[in-house]
Every structure is written in structure tokens, then in C-alpha cells.
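Sample intake sheet
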Amino acid sequence: MMTPDGGGLTMTVSDRDHVQGPPTAPVTLVEYGDYECPYCGAAYPIVKRLQERLGDRLRFVFRNFPLTTVHPHAEHAAEAAEAAGAQGRFWEMHDYLYEHQLALTDQDLYEYAIALGFDVEQFNREMAEQVHTERVRTDFMSGVRSGVNGTPTFYINGYRHNGAYDFDSLLAAIETAMSEVAARPGR
């Protein structure tokens, strides 16, 4: 049985989150990530593989946790993803940022907005006015309150996953959580 040994989420998943997968999925995987973090970059294709493998049985949530002291472009990259989200295209930018994570300058972000066909004027205005800074900070502080101290940090059904985050380890932890959900009375 999964226990809160590693701590739990202090901010439950809600409509404010960026979510892929149905709310009825037996497992919700929350990632606190940083677009410039090489470990998050390595985890990105693993999460994609999990989503493909588990389909509608997995709901994935991404929250921003830019480690600005070691990753100077991480916060602006997170704001760029949120600016894309304001245009209903968060996941396109999320994926593009991880697929191009070695190039995250402000100029790169602007070029990505063009390449992805965003409303560039709106994107630039929101970036210049730091419209999404508070959203990124809210994600970050929810992570701090939940015990996040590095990236990526994963939570499975609200509990911190303290194991490895390679495909097999995450899949095993998710399958354990699915078994626990299935074993609950009334399920």
C-alpha cells in the first residue's frame, strides 16, 4: 500500500492545473518539473511512454518548479509555457521546450512561439508584462509546501514517489497504485 512516507501534495489537482488524461483515471501522476533541468529532460520521454502504455488509466499533471539558482532560463521557459497555455496550447509548448531544452533564451522562446503558430503579439506582451509569473510562483510554492526540493519530483495519487523515475520503476509504482484503487471497497 502506498503510504505518505515521502509526503503528500498540499495542493490537490484542480481545474487550474495542466492535465492530460481523464479525471476518472485510477492514477494521477503529478510532476514538478523544470524545463532546463537535464533530469526532467530525461524523464520527459519516460512520461510520454507511460502515457502511451497506460492510456485512459493515467492522468498526468505538470506543475512548474523552476530552479532559478542553477537554471537561469527555467523561469522564463515556464512563463512561456503558461503564455502558450493562455492560448489553449500549453502542452505543445511544454513538449517543444523539452525537445529543445538546450536553447531556452528569450529569443529562442520567441522563435518557438512563431514556429508553433501562436498569436506572437499576445505571447510577447504577456512575456514582457510577466503576466504568468504569479502562476509559476504558485506552482513553485505548492511544491515547496509538498516537500519538493529538486526536479523532477513525482507524486502518484497524491503521495510522493521516492523511488527511481526510470520507466520500469515508475510503471511498477503506478501499477501498485492502480491495484490499491481497484481493491478499495465500492470500486
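Comment: The domain at 4-183 is CATH 3.40.30.10 (Glutaredoxin). The mean pLDDT is 95.
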